[in-house]
Each structure stands twice: as C-alpha cells, then as structure tokens.
Design a protein that fits this description.
Layout lengths: L1 H10 L4 E3 L6 H18 L5 H5 L2 E3 L8 E4 L5 H14 L5 E4 L6 H5 L8 E5 L9 E6 L5 H13 L3 E6 L6 H17 L5 H12 L5 H8 L1 H15 L8 H8 L16
Parallel strand pairs: 1-2, 3-4, 4-5, 6-7
Antiparallel strand pairs: 5-6
Helix pairs in contact: 1-2, 7-9, 7-10, 10-11
This protein binds 3-hydroxybutanoyl-coenzyme A (3HC).
The site of 3-hydroxybutanoyl-coenzyme A has 17 residues, from α2, α7 and α9.
Amino acid sequence: MGGGIAQVVAASGRRVSLHDEVAGAVERALGTMRRSLEKLAEKGGAEPDEVLARVSEVDGLVPADLMIEAVVEDAEVKQGLFRRADETLPPEAILASNTSSIPITSLAAVTARPERVVGMHFFNPVPVLKLVEVVRAVQTSDETAAAIVALAEQLGKVPAEARDFPGFVSNRILMPFVNEAAYALMEGVAEPDAIDTIAKLGFAHPMGPLALADLIGLDTCVAIMEVLHEGFGDPKYAPCPLLRQYVAAGRLGRKSGRGFYEYA
Ligand code: 3HC
C-alpha cells in the first residue's frame, strides 16, 4: 500500500521520499507504480515518467512536511517508527498512519506532538479506490484532521472521518464479513468460488470476500481480527482458525502467490 500511496501523492504534484527496511521492496513498489501509472495514462492520467521523477528512495527517515506510515500491522513496530519519526521530522510535521486497525491514540502517545498524529487510511488498490478514512486519535487536533481531509481531497480522494475505536468504521464492518466467509469455507458450507460468487452477484460486490482477503493479505486480516477481538473483548471477533492456519503455512494471499486461490 505504501507504493500506492506514494503514487497518488506524487501524481498530485508533490515530492515523495520512499523508504522500506526490506531490501528490494521500494524497487518492487516502483515497478508496480509504473504499471499502474501506465494503465492510468491510457485513460488520460499523468505521464508515468513525470510522476515517478517526483519519487525518490531514501535510506531511513528524512525530514518532510508529512509522514504516511504503511509498515506491518504490529503495534510495537509502528510505535518504534513513530518515536523515530518524532525525532527526525520537523516539529510542525504531521505524522499519519495508514494502519488498518492499530489504535492511533497509542501511536500519538509515543510522540511529543500527539496533536499532530492522525490516521490516514487508504484502500487497496490505492490508485483506484476513492476512500480515505481519516481517523482522529483522542489527541488529534481539529487543525491536523482538517489538514488531512484537505490533502485527501487534493489527492482526488473522498475523506470520511471516524474516531479511534477498534477497526475504526471500515474494518469493523469489513473484517467480520471476511472472517465469516472463512468460517463458511472451513465448515464446508461452500467452495471458495461459490462463496465469492454469492457476494459478487448477490450483493453486487466487485469481488468476493475470499478474493478480497487474498488482495488485503491473510496475515493482515488475522492481525485486524486480533485487534477487534482484544479491543472489544467479544468472542464473535475471534480470527477464524482456517485463516490462522493459512498464515502459518505461508499462504498469505496474492503477495505470496497463494491464499484462498493460487496466483501466477
Ligand atoms: N492501478 C491502476 N488501475 C487499476 C489498478 C491499479 N492498481 N487496478 C485495477 N485498475 C483498473 C483496471 O485497469 C481497470 O480499468 P478499465 O476499467 O479502464 O479497464 C479497472 O481498474 C478495473 O479493473 P479490472 O478490470 O482488472 O478488474 P475489476 O473490475 O474487478 O476491478 C478492483 C479490480 C478495482 C480491484 C475491484 O475488483 C475492486 O474494487 N475490488 C474491491 C477492492 C476492495 O474492496 N478494496 C478494499 C480492501 S480493504 C482495504 O484496503 C483496507 C485495509 O485496511 C484492509
């Protein structure tokens, strides 16, 4: 998602510095960005080279007006990153997280600028989906939320504001749906194709919940269910054992070549 976010920010005319601790990740993201920009250019979008010229790979955190963090869904990893960002970025910079469910309040709390920490939650595939869920931590100032709402609009997105409760609004609704589809498969109620066809043709969803889980990443789905489960203390949010089993087997979805389906 980091690459998708970098793409839409660069396409809006801004300069973007991209960093990933995993070797080769930025290079792969740049390749994905180019393919996406080429598709969009066919429909009148900006020249891919022109957009990519505004994106540079950097070795670690660098000073900037805004950070948008999109690392693994692990609270400790994110908190460590927010601590470092707080030391590196100028005090007036906004620190935003694309987290799917980690409490923004807990990220704000590790910084010396909690009022400038906010959730800026994009949706996959970022260049196509219009929504940005703007999540206010307990500490987020009105000014910070307004700046992110305005930025989302400048990126051609539609912002919707939510408060910092487990799963915010998006994943509180979406993830139990995905989890229930995994239970239906595990219990032998239907095959994956049938489950997804029912959602696609019965509810007019663009893709079924199992194909969507593969797009999001099954590890991310489990991590979000764990946040809901722990945050609400309600057993109805327990991650489906089949999801956990696939993750343990390395079947993470599209990114690993196999999840509920296989990918070339
Ligand atoms: N960049 C640019 N263009 C893209 C693209 C990309 N990454 N991906 C797809 N497109 C374009 C295609 O070129 C195509 O354009 P065309 O209509 O001009 O030919 C158009 O989008 C539709 O793509 P496809 O024909 O390949 O296939 P679909 O019609 O099925 O669309 C989809 C693909 C956009 C992924 C659609 O299936 C979809 O919207 N699925 C649901 C995705 C969703 O629910 N995402 C949210 C996940 S939750 C999340 O991210 C939050 C996190 O916290 C979990």
